[in-house]
Design goal:
CATH architecture of the largest domain: Up-down Bundle
CATH class of the largest domain: Mainly Alpha
Number of domains: 3
Strand order of the largest sheet: 2-4-5-7-6
Low-confidence stretches: none
Distance between the termini: 46 Å
Largest sheet: 5 strands, mixed
Helix content: 55-70%
Strand content: 5-15%
Order of helices and strands: HHHHHHHEHEEHEEHEE
Radius of gyration: 53 Å
Amino acid sequence: MKIKTGIVLSGAVNVALIIIIAAFAYRDLTGILTKLSFVEIADDLNTMFLEMRLSEKNYFLSNDLDELRDIKERLASAKQAVGSMRADIVRATGTANYAALVSDIEEYEKTFPEAREDRPPDVDTEARIRAAGKKLREFSETLIRLERKEVHRIIENSTNGMILSFWAILLSTVALSPISSRRILNALKKIETLTKSISQGRFDKIEENPGNNEIASVIRAVNSMSLELRNREDELLQTKKLASLGILTAGVAHEITNPLNNISMIAQTFEQSYDDLDETMRLEFMKNVENEAERIKNVVINLLDFSKPKESQRALEDVGEVVNHTMNLVRNMLDVSAIDTLLDLPEGLPPVFVDAHQIHQVLVNLITNAIQAMQPGGKLFVATRAVSHGQFVEIEIKDTGKGIAPEHLPHVFDPFFSTKGVDGTGLGLSISYGIVKNHQGSIRVESEVGGGTAFTVTLPAHNATEE
């Protein structure tokens, strides 16, 4: 069943329940109003009987003929009222009681002709009149009492019905909502997990649910997107591999060709001028050949380090101690280059699970680049700090050098890209980038021409990652 259909069905059930409740409430309210109207009429009838009894008492006390006429007039009105209320009285008290009421009114009416207007009624007549009037009054009071009791019953039933209906709607909502909500939330959770894995480069697939509802359609669309992204990533990776191969080939050719050309020229010159060279000059020629061969060796070693990173030997390390050890390694370079060093290494930072030698290599490379960008003179700032509530530790290396042009910043980690001209191989930052990524960390750069450069290495804290 589709989600839309389920929502509509659930809403329809609730609307139906509300309509039923409203119908019963309207019925009860109408019944209450009818009963109240009848109670008012019954109360008027009771008042009429009461006034008749008062007139009756006055007549017996004073033998006033006006009181007798008043009783007869009220009696006629009472008969008319009882006739018009027949259906309500029958419904409230039953046919037998209604017939008894009519009979009591007629009996009460019959007692008065026996009373002479020129003299008071005798004791027996007075007793019969009083007895008949009492029965009328008791009947009207009973009728009112019964109707009021019926009104209270209707109100109580209506209240109970409202309460039961409220709980019925609430329970139906509580019972039906989690079913659809659970399906939607489970599907969203799967989609969230897949999108996170896609953002991390893993193009998984959600197991599709049978059916033709909206959730199944969304899952199929997300699976299709994941498959398409995987295909596009494979194409992109292949393109990048070809581009990197071209860069590597061009870089290696450039880096090796220059010293080979130098060796060739030195050899030719040495051969042609051998007889004219003394021992010292011959040694100098050989020293130059050795230097150029060393350049080739360094290029090959860096290339191997870049293409085949060594297996790391990781252990829990204190970031401050790693930085201090690195500073000891480069202390001589800093002193020779007249670089002022400012350290901000707070204690108590979370430990990191790293290969200390590889992190030393990264930091030495970054500090060496900073020195070369500043010398002679300048200031080097090295700081460590915890970020993201202690989940990561950052190492910042900032210099006051000449900075990097904005158009060069996106390429500083590319292999064989260098801003040093012939003095750099362009592999140092690429190797450093690979080491940091291999530690599940990141490295970023910020620079301003003439304002210096800042490299920030971010490593996961030990309590935020698995060994």
